Amino acid sequence: MMEKFIPGLGKLRKNSLHFSLLLLLNSIVLASIPVTNNPILGGIAVVDFTTQHPNPKAFYNKIPLYVQPIKDQHWQVLIGIPLQEKPGKKTLIVEDFSTQRFYFEVIDYNYDEQHITLKNDKKKYLNPNLQHLDRINKERLILSEARKTFSKPALSKGHFIRPVKGITTSPFGLRRFYNGQARRAHTGLDYAGDMNTPILSAADGKVLLTGHFFFNGKTVFIDHGQGLISVYIHMNKIAVKQNQMIKQGEIIGTVGQTGRTTGAHLHWGVYLNQVSVNPNLLLKKNEI
After folding, report:
1. Of 140, 288, 108, 156, whose CA–CA distance to 211 is shortest?
2. Which terminus of the chain has a smaller tally of CB atoms within 10 A, N or C?
3. Contact 37/46 with Cβ under 8 angstroms?
């Protein structure tokens, strides 16, 4: 078993360390999905390796990862870092003709807080009754299975695009409090939008799931292959069907305010190896 150490490299932020410049060159422009290494909580770690194997595989915590060819025998692994991950040295397994271990560093990062007030009929999302809890538990299984999807091959190339043009009203990672009660961190981006504003698919893919869920409201999941999934939440209308192939920029529905929301907007999320990551990491800088 071969061992290699690859230090993490991220933007110098709170509690970050000084890192080698080894991976600074990894703002890859030749990659199928161009991503800069940013292994903070909720970020994406980028690990490069070489192999003559035609179909290498990679795993983190036994979960399959997104592996993409770059050039010649140069390959790249994209690893979604959980918001709840413990910072420090982590192990990546790559399987080609043998099994190799690579190491990368997860960097701590403190996100801001957001306090939201729910009024009137929206208070049911704070203290669901037994009927709601039964629905929530059933939907949780459906949504969990969707996030676990790992299909081949990759269905998208290049940068993602913004699904709507509105300003970002809630960034990724905010530690949220509803009516003073702590809830899980914000796992996507909220974009302002008038009711029924068209929503575009951020990249090529296949419609994985559609439905109307208790917290999410009307929702669409799109599979982009190898555990990379985008999700569009709180929609008013859904314009696509499950298993439908989708092109980047195609209209998949409209902005709404279904589910746990205080007004019309789109919540856009991205999952990578079953982990919520900051969607901005897949966009061109001028679209953030």
Report:
1. 140
2. N
3. yes
Residue with the two structure tokens 């809630």: 170
Q: What pLDDT does residue 103 have?
A: 97
Please name the residue that has the structure tokens 């990672």. Answer: 173
Q: Say whether pLDDT at 287 is over 60.
A: yes
Whole-angstrom distance, CA of residue 136 vs CA of residue 209 = 17
The pTM (predicted TM-score) of the whole model is 0.86
Please tell me whether residues 138 and 251 are part of one structural domain. yes
- CB contact at 8 A, 77 and 51: no
- 192-202 pLDDT, tens digit per residue, is 999 999 999 99
User: Which residues span the domain enclosing 80?
Assistant: 2-106
Cis geometry, peptide bond prior to residue 279 (ω within 30 degrees of 0): no
> Do 53 and 138 fall into the same domain?
no
- Region 264-283 average pLDDT: 98
pLDDT in tens, 146-176: 999 999 999 999 999 999 999 999 999 998 7
Q: Which two tokens stand for residue 83?
A: 């918001």
Q: Give the CA distances from residue 189 to residues 106, 171, 232, in Å, rounded to whole numbers and listed in that order.
A: 22, 5, 10
Select from 89, 106, 123 the last residue of a domain: 106
Q: Which backbone phi and psi does 134 adopt, to 5 degrees?
A: -65, -45
For every residue of 194-260, DSSP letters joined together read -TT-EEE-SSSEEEEEEEEETTTEEEEEEE-STTEEEEEEEEEEE---TT-EE-TT-EEEEEB--SS
Percent of the chain having pLDDT more than 70? 89
